[in-house]
Amino acid sequence: MRLLWGSGRRGRVRFLLMTLGSALGVACLAAVLTIPSILGAHDARVAAREPRPGMSSVVYREFSDPYGPQPLRRIFIARTHTGPTPVPPGIDRLPEVGEVIVSPRLGQILAASPRAAGLVPGRVVGTIAPEGLGGSDDLYAYIGIARDQLPEAETLGGFGIGRSWRQVIDPSTLSTLRFTLGCIVLLPLVIFLSVCARLSGESRARRLAALRLVGLSVKDTLRVNAGESVVAALIGALIGIVGYLGINEAMARIGLPGLHWYPADGRPEGSTIAVCLLGCPALAWVVGQFSARRPALSPINVRRVGERKPPKKFGMLLLVPGIGITVGYCVLSIIGRDPSGGSASSLLVPGAVLLTGAGLVFGLAPITAWLAQRLAGVARSLPMALAMRRTEVDPGASLRVVTGLVLLVFGASLTQGVLIELDQVSRRTAPLQEYDIRLNDVSPAQQQALAKVPGVQTTTVSYSSWDPLDGSNVAHADLVVGTCDQLAAYTQQATGCVDGRIMQLADDRTTSDYDPKAGERYPFALKDGRKVALTVPRERINVRPWEMSVFESGALLVPPSLLPPNLADGTLTLFSDADPTTIRSVLDGIGAIAPTASVEPVGIVIDSLAQLTVIRSLLVVGMVLGLVIGVAAFVVSVADRAMERRGQVTALALLGARAGTLRVVQVVQVLLPLVVGLGAAIVTGWLAESSYLITGGGAVHWDWDGLSLLFASALGVVLAAAVASVPMVRRHIDPEHIRRD
Q1: At what angle do helices 9-49 and 171-181 cross, to 10 degrees?
Q2: Which pTM value belongs to this model?
Q3: Of residues 139, 149, 143, 142, the one with CA closest to residue 121
Q4: Is the CB of residue 627 less than 8 Å from the CB of residue 408?
Q5: How far apart are the two ends of the chain, measured CA to CA in Å?
Q6: Fewer beta carbons under 10 A from the terminal one: N or C of the chain?
Q7: Which pairing describes strands 478-481 and 556-558: parallel, antiparallel, or unpaired?
Q8: What's the number of CA atoms in the CB half-sphere (13 Å) around residue 99?
Q9: Are 51 and 159 in contact (CB under 8 A)?
Q10: What Å distances lie between residue 640 and 232, 428, 510, 567, CA to CA?
């Protein structure tokens, strides 16, 4: 530290940059490592409030409905007799008849949207405390109701289960999220911390070589370099932890789309603090030992700027198995084979991603050096020749500038693949939205009111043939009450329909488990316990229904005039447009009319939608952190290279090089490895994304839209890097830089 502090302003500025760089890296590392703790705290509180059946004086029924992209959960509670009652965390007592206890966020929604008040009938008498909520944006309510208004209720035994099945992110998906965040944040972070630990590498090497030449031992020379790097990393780690704590306090009050947490959830645990305070200095020590070995062992070559060894080419070998695996899966998809499923893919695809990412890092230097040598041999302009010769001699310096951005583009491809795969299992693609409600849950008056809800276009009723109570697997048939006009309006295609006749829907593209044949008879239960049999007609309607529709292939279309009276256990289906605003309006209207009815928005997996929102938010945070790290590594490296090259720039200026020539040399030196790296990242990243989609088993295998987006992003990165590199060269002749050498 005495040597550092006595080396002048330049040494102190370098130490400050190393410290601030380490602080930024540790803050990003703490943010990534704390994400599982935030999710775990949320899941623990959710598990503690889950109702469980048992014996008490209270019965309950739970409802979960989509409210926008997140679930609205309501617990209807009714007393059967006097006696002690279990109480969930976050409230002091259960609500009485006509009383409601809501979460703070739901209370704000009820105050701002009168239509949503029908979802929680009653007078708000309290608010759920944080220990009873997963997060500050939780939509949750305990509603007191009379016993006769709560059909099919269970006796409440208590609250709290060992592990909630309503986790913020499914464990299998969480593993994918961790891996993706590791690729887009942790890999660039390691590169960035390595860059910070090697700032002013050439001048430090010359200083260490001078110490070695005046008699310092090899071990002590390495210790001098490691001491400076470790102290800077340790101070930076402390600053980074403190900075993250402040950011957590602010972000916990703002939240992310789909994920809000309390400040205590995001405070790092002891293991996280230990990793940050020990891991960053340990990495700095390793990098310092590696970078100081050459001046410690060959000090004369360092002082005389001896010839450098070409970069080793073994790093390129990592690309061979990585690209080979991803290309193999892509070929299987092209020839029509389905490699999805199985345990091999879950190991091969992540392994291929890691090998490819490592190959991009270690293989870029020899590839760039080889390309620079070839270009320098055919270059006809002085700036190009100077830039290529310099890149050929020292490709590692340029790679430290661009590696973070290259890994960021590579990780962006994986992020797109994860979002596409999750989106396929969460959303309905049809332009129409259906809502299923059991007829037993609504009265005739409520049925009429539901048909008039704003946004509802039409309604229909469907029934299923009698199913034996012994659980035996018997053939069954479904009937749908409707007209030919309804069928034509709410399917993709329907031909051959005749009004006033019972006909069977048939879709030649699909097969169903039960395909009723013409002439077969199926019994349908009546409300009085009897059964009425319907015969499958020979007349068929060629239909192409939307995915997951009540008008499915094999069902019988029955005109209202021919429907047998008093059929039991039917389902009321409402139709509306599929835009989110209409869906939200219809669900609010249904809740206002029939708050205790269970509603199933067909094709919408509300838990998956909420999970997708959280994952998208976390991945966006990861991309932002990766972008910050990549840009920081770029800025620090470019500035460091400009400082290191002042002697060379001075020599070229004394030889008569113009300012424009020097700036072109600087820009080309940055753009060559950047273009090569980004091109390789786009190709390998898209192949890795495609292999992930192919093995995921979804309908989308090739993300062509994402490919164009990656090209546009890479072009923007190249232009920004070119512009940012220009002011880093100053044609200022300072003989001091020459005299020192």
Answers
A1: 170
A2: 0.68
A3: 143
A4: yes
A5: 24
A6: N
A7: parallel
A8: 12
A9: yes
A10: 16, 52, 64, 81
Instruction: Write b or e for each residue in 328-343: b if 16 or more Cβ atoms lie within 10 A of its Cβ, otherwise e.
Output: ebbebbeeeeebbeee
Instruction: Write out the H or E segment, with its range, that includes residue 158.
Output: strand 154-159
Contact assessment for residue 248 and residue 200, using Cβ atoms and an 8 Å cutoff:
no
Tell me: the pLDDT tens digits for 587-613?
A: 778 877 877 677 777 776 666 666 777
Work out the average pLDDT over 222-247: 85
d(CA 126, CA 146): 19
CA pair distance 253, 394, nearest whole angstrom = 48
**What are 235's two structure tokens?**
């101070």
**Of 77, 133, 125, which is closest to residue 103 (Cα–Cα)?**
133
DSSP per position, 38-83: HHHHHHHHHHHH-EEE--SSEEEEEEEEEETTEEEEEEEEEESSSS
Q: How many CB atoms lie within 10 A of CB 413?
A: 27
The candidate with the shortest Cα–Cα distance to 390, out of 160, 615, 202, 665, is 665
The number of CA neighbours under 13 Å toward the Cβ of 414 is 29
Amino acid (1-letter code) at residue 271: S
Instruction: Quote the distance between the C-alpha of residue 135 and its chain's center.
Output: 19
Per-residue pLDDT of 308-326, as tens digits, reads: 566 666 667 777 777 777 7
What is the per-residue pLDDT for 741?
Answer: 43
Measure the CA–CA gap between 26 and 387, rounded to whole angstroms: 34
What are the DSSP calls for 295-362, one per residue? HHH-HHHHHTTPPPPPPPSGGGGGHHHHHHHHHHHHHHHHTT----SSHHHHHHHHHHHHHHHHHHHH
CA–CA separation, 243 and 25 (whole Å) = 11
Residue 168, φ and ψ in degrees, nearest 5: -60, -45
Q: Is 449 helix (H, G, I), strand (E, B) or coil?
A: helix
User: Which candidate, 657, 656, 678, places its Cα nearest to that of 722?
Assistant: 678
* Rg, Å, the chain Cα set: 34
Q: How many helices (H) and strands (E) does the chain have?
A: 22, 18
Distance CA 49, CA 154 (A): 16
CA distance 707 to 218: 51
- Both tokens of 619, joined, read 């991945």
Residue (of 2, 194, 26) closest to 640 by Cα position: 194
* CA-based nearest residue to 314, from 284, 280, 278, 355: 355
Residue 422 in tokens = 């999750």
Run of H or E residues at 506: strand 503-506
The amino acid that residue 554 corresponds to is G
Running DSSP on this structure, what letter comes out for residue 516? P
- Residue 615 — pLDDT band, cuts 50, 70, 90? confident
Tally of CB atoms within 10 A around 493: 11
Q: Which residues contact 700 (CB under 8 A, 6 or more apart)?
A: 420, 421, 424, 693
Q: What is the mean pLDDT of the chain?
A: 77
Q: Residue 94 carries which DSSP code?
A: -
pLDDT of residue 470: 46
Structure tokens at 133: 């909520």
3-state secondary structure 571-592: EEEEEEECCHHHHHHHHHHHHH
Q: Cα(65)–Cα(599) distance, rounded to whole angstroms?
A: 7
Q: Is pLDDT above 70 for 16? A: yes
Residue in the structure block whose two tokens are 């059909």: 151
φ/ψ of 499, rounded to 5, equals -65, 150
